[in-house]
Every structure is written in structure tokens, then in C-alpha cells.
């Protein structure tokens, strides 16, 4: 399995990261994508990737933090992609639920990330919450200028945005939310996403899947995400693991370069 979204830097895993990774590898996770949420965390994220042969990383600024990096440039993002192990741009996006950053700051940051994805040729990891219509509009507008490859990460949005993004060649990643009893609407949306566009993630340390809900999430729990997707799609778990790993390696092609 390929855990395509792990947040390994910072205090949550500071004391036992090696043990966490060992448990994940024993559970069948063979590849990890460590996510950059702030530009000033990039060095820490990249260090984790370079220290492990089975970990790669992204570079980007989460929409929550876009207010903290008003002077972010496309060149900064593209330059970081020249580093070994960097295989994606983001995560970026729009999150109007919490309002940690003003909407205009989030939009400006998103557009810079889109241009960096174009210039680097790397996939764009997108976080969207309560901004489906605007996200869809921006993606279609920017894609018409010049193509790029979007990834709707930890997708909990509506069917309309999912289908608009799929029409642009997007991939969709599912997390432990898919296993939550309350997530019937998410399951309905994912049921209509083709298997060749789906990938798995834990988004650890957040969103531990059933039956681990309430605990600190970790990559070893990706097995339960695979099981939830297999149940939804009526497939065997091993088939889901194989298909989603192939999809992730196709999306993050630099992993095998």
C-alpha cells in the first residue's frame, strides 16, 4: 500500500516516529508521502523523506496558513521541487469553514500553487472545505489556461466538485472518514468515482478509521481505509490495495523515476 498523505513532522510523532514507521511497514505500507503544510516546515518534512528510502514529500502551504506567507512565490515552490524526493505540490486549497486565513489570501496562494504544478509537472494536492463551487470554478478556469493534475485529498466534498475535477483528469483520495458511520454522504460520492482514479491515505495523525477512531492515527491503519473502500466498491481488499497503489504510483510518477 501507498499512504499518500502523512503528516509526520512536528511533536505528534517526535518521540516514536521510527516505531510508527516500523508498524506501518509491517502492516504492508511500502510507500509514504510526507506532506508540507507550511513553507517553514519544508526542511523538516524533506529531512524525513531523505532519511527513509520509502518516503517522499511535497512542498506547499496549507490554506489555513496562507495568511502567514503572503510573499510566497511560484519560483520558491518550483525551486523546492528540484530537491530529491519532492514529488508533489501542496497541500494547498480553500477552507472556508474555520476562516484561519482570509478568502482572498487562500485564493492567491492556491493560484500560485497551481502555476507551480504546471511549471514542475507535479500533481497538485488540494484541500477543500465549504468551498466546492469556487474550487471547481478556479480549477476549470486555470486548467483552460494550461493543464495540470489535481488531487482531491481526503475528499469529503460534494458530487458536483468531484465530477468537475474528474473531468479535468483529477484523482481522489479517501481516508478513514470513509469508514465513519456518519459518512454516508461521503460514501455516496466515492461510489461514483472510478477505481482508476482513487488512492488511499491516512492523513495521520488525524482521522483514525474505525475501529481505531479516537486514537492518534498512524500509517499502519491504512489497512482499514482499504477495507472500507473494498466494502463500498464490492471488491476484495487485496484488489483495492493493488489498484490504489498502482494509481498512486501513476499519479506520483517521480517516485519511480
Automatic annotation (TrEMBL):
Positions contributing to a divalent metal cation 1 binding: 5, 91, 203
Keyword Metal-binding carried by entry: yes
PROSITE patterns: TATD_2, TATD_3
Keywords: Hydrolase, Metal-binding
GO molecular function: DNA nuclease activity; hydrolase activity, acting on ester bonds; metal ion binding
Protein residues bound to a divalent metal cation 2: 127, 153
Gene Ontology, cellular component aspect: cytosol
Family: Belongs to the metallo-dependent hydrolases superfamily. TatD-type hydrolase family.
NCBIfam families attached to this UniProt entry: YchF/TatD family DNA exonuclease (TIGR00010)
PANTHER family associated with the record: D-AMINOACYL-TRNA DEACYLASE
Entry protein name: LuxR family transcriptional regulator
Organism per entry: Hyphomonas chukchiensis
Amino acid at each position: 500500500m501507498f499512504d499518500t498523505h502523512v503528516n509526520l513532522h512536528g511533536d505528534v510523532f517526535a518521540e516514536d516516529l521510527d516505531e510508527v514507521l516500523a508498524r506501518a511497514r509491517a502492516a504492508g505500507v511500502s510507500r509514504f508521502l510526507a506532506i508540507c503544510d507550511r513553507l517553514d516546515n519544508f526542511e523538516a518534512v524533506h529531512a524525513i523523506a531523505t532519511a527513509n528510502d520509502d518516503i517522499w514529500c511535497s512542498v506547499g502551504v496549507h490554506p489555513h496558513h496562507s495568511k502567514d506567507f503572503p510573499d510566497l512565490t511560484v519560483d520558491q515552490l518550483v525551486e523546492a521541487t528540484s530537491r530529491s524526493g519532492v514529488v508533489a505540490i501542496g497541500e494547498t486549497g480553500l477552507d472556508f469553514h474555520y476562516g484561519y486565513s482570509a478568502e482572498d489570501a487562500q485564493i492567491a496562494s492556491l493560484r500560485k500553487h497551481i502555476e507551480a504544478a504546471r511549471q514542475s509537472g507535479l500533481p497538485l494536492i488540494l484541500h477543500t472545505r465549504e468551498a466546492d463551487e469556487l474550487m471547481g470554478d478556479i480549477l476549470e478556469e486555470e486548467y483552460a489556461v494550461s493543464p495540470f493534475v489535481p488531487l482531491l485529498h481526503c475528499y469529503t466534498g460534494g458530487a458536483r466538485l468531484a465530477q468537475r475535477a474528474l473531468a479535468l483528469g483529477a484523482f481522489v483520495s479517501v481516508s478513514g472518514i470513509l469508514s465513519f458511520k456518519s459518512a454516508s454522504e461521503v460514501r455516496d460520492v466515492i461510489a461514483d468515482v472510478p477505481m482508476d482514479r482513487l488512492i488511499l491515505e491516512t492523513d495521520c495523525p488525524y482521522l483514525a478509521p474505525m475501529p481505531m477512531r479516537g486514537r492518534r492515527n498512524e500509517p499502519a491503519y491504512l489497512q482499514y481505509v482499504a477495507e472500507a473502500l473494498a466494502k463500498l466498491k464490492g471488491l476484495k481488499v487485496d484488489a483495492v490495495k493493488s489498484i490504489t497503489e498502482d494509481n498512486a504510483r501513476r499519479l506520483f510518477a517521480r517516485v519511480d523515476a
